[in-house]
Amino acid sequence: MSQPMNLVVYLARAGLGSRRSCDELIRNGAVTVNDEVVTFPRQKVEPEDVVLVDGEPVEARELRYFLVNKPRGVASTRRDPHAERVIVDLVPNGRILFPVGRLDVDTTGLIILTNDGVLANRLMHPRYGVPKTYVARVHGKVSRRALGTLRQGVDLEDGLTSPAEVNLKKQSAKTALVEITIHEGRKRQVRRMLAAVGLPVEELHRRRYGPIADKGLEPGGYRELAGDEVEALRRAGEDVAVAVGEEVEGQPLLLAAEAAPAAKPIRVDVPEAIVEVAAADDQGRETPLDESPVPAQDDSHA
Fold it and tell me: Taking the model in full, what pTM does it have?
């Protein structure tokens, strides 16, 4: 922090939540600046000021948020000795960032990179994740029964899945395009759900993560998220916190920028969403996503 900023912005950049939740902290008298209680969210904070929340010091950081459209062949981890490239190398100075969720090396789709540990932790909550939308090219004919089963929940080896939102986008002689939205984060969940109803996946692509879509972002491309998009993600993360009620959410994830030297590596288990994608042109000729992106669809259900 090198310039004065509003107290509510300072707390948000310290990773305490959305501006709305930080506003409530301030108005409830939980925040002091230089040992004085402040209840005005827009009070200016100078670089040399000492800010405490419930008696604990907090410090604004330069929080960064990027959206990346991961191409095939890129590992979605910070390090992978078996991969030629990793996701953080697609963004300038990406090594200080942390990928929110994972995709297989052969998977394409959206991944958020950030150094905001509180937000990352909420977005990746293993039981009540934010909705994620995928487009899958599957082998076979999609029946009404298969769609109904997916919408009701599929009985997998690790238990019954939550109901999914599913739409058949296109059916050809041998394959089909299916759009599916899930609210969990089990390993290879989309692939396993579709296989369980007799629709083995040929390609999958994550085209939407919570309120953020991939429109206009080419494979391998990235962009910094706008302020309103970050706020939308924070609200989605807060919805997760409300959904889990009194469950213990766990400590914020230890991110690369915050990691302290250790005698042995620190391991953070992250729920995986394993997906890939395909598209078809107007004549029904099936083509890889890298050549012909999936046409934009109505996202009102996502």
Answer: 0.67
